[in-house]
Specification:
The protein is mainly alpha-helical. Helices cover about 65% and strands about 5% of the residues. The chain has a two-stranded antiparallel ribbon with strand order 1-2. The longest helix has 30 residues. The protein is flat, with a radius of gyration of 27 Å.
Length: about 450
Amino acid sequence: MTELRHRGATENELQHQPSEDKGSDTEGRPDGASDSETKADAGVPDVPVPPDDTPEVLNKALSGLSSRWRNWWVRGILTLAMISFFFFIIYLGPIMLMMIVMCVQIKCFQEIITIGYSVYHSYHLPWFRTLSWYFLLCVNYFFYGETVTDYFFTLVQREMPLRILSKYHRFISFALYLTGFCMFVLSLVKKHYRLQFYMFGWTHVTLLIVVTQSHLIIHNLFEGMIWFIVPISCVICNDIMAYMFGFFFGRTPLIKLSPKKTWEGFIGGFFATVVFGILLAYVMAGYSYFVCPVEFNNDSNRFTVDCEPSELFQLQDYTLPTVLESITGWSTVRLYPFQIHTIALSTFASVIGPFGGFFASGFKRAFKIKDFANTIPGHGGIMDRFDCQYLMATFVNVYIASFIRGPNPTKVIQQLLALRLDQQLHIFNSMKAHLTEKGLLPATEEVA
């Protein structure tokens, strides 16, 4: 960046700080960065390294182990704690899951924006953090307002203030964004134009990656908690099993962006994730609590997950190919159709999902940091654990829209009820004529 190469005398110390201060070997650099990469990035200020927040109890208990095994135990213990917390949140129901998604979104946004502020705070960019959080508020208002209108239509129509907000929701959202846009233009400083536009793009890309994806996660949740739990669990399983296979059997480096990743871990994680996904889908598909869409009950003013499971979650007989029949001795197997879809989900989680992690690794290497934060000892920040989840959320949403979801009768009726009475009558007469023509209704004389 031009600003980074032409700084004033008061900032020359940071610009000319020799890279050797960080250590002569690659272990002192994040992800094993080389000397050439360090020199190429010499113009980027260092992000302060957060202190080790590993609980003192674990530090004392594992003090006799090597750093490799100490890290293994810390990661393992904290992983079990996070999985237990995940099970507890599932037990609390869909509302709590949505709240957790919202909290994770805000924390991930905070971690990425904090990196930008840590790198460029010495420039004293006016309103950078204020505008970043303001745009987060605007984007959340837009997305969650759309969600409320879609899934709480009857409640919205029942309350006059909500009805007004719903009717003019997009205009209000656009007005809020324009306010932030004008504030940004007014904050421009002559000597920092380019850098301020860099940070404007930084904020918007962060919003695209974090807020949009978390919004899709909540949409997946409304389709049924199984569409939320299985994909997330597949990513978690792949992360764990790839680490385990790589830790014990890893020999062949997979990608330069993340030197610790190995082909052995990648392949082992793939097969383990596919098997895990099929088994988890079989267990969950038998419970209405997991497979039914999350809907708002207008009578009780509560979310409900009670329905007659669709064919996707009903056992069916499948004929095995001749090759598999000769190996297993079975001619047919009974599976839930959802299990077949789970093969696609788990394959994506283990083959394409890791590229979300590689993308995050490239980002961290660009700013010479090891983790986004130190929120979770042994794991880094929340974003370090959700870098693959956001990519998975987009795939699941696209997959549902392409192969699963059909027209929603409830939403169609809600839209019809919002029309004028003459429009409703016209649609009624058109539907009556159509159903009569199809033979579903008896032909009767037209009533004046």
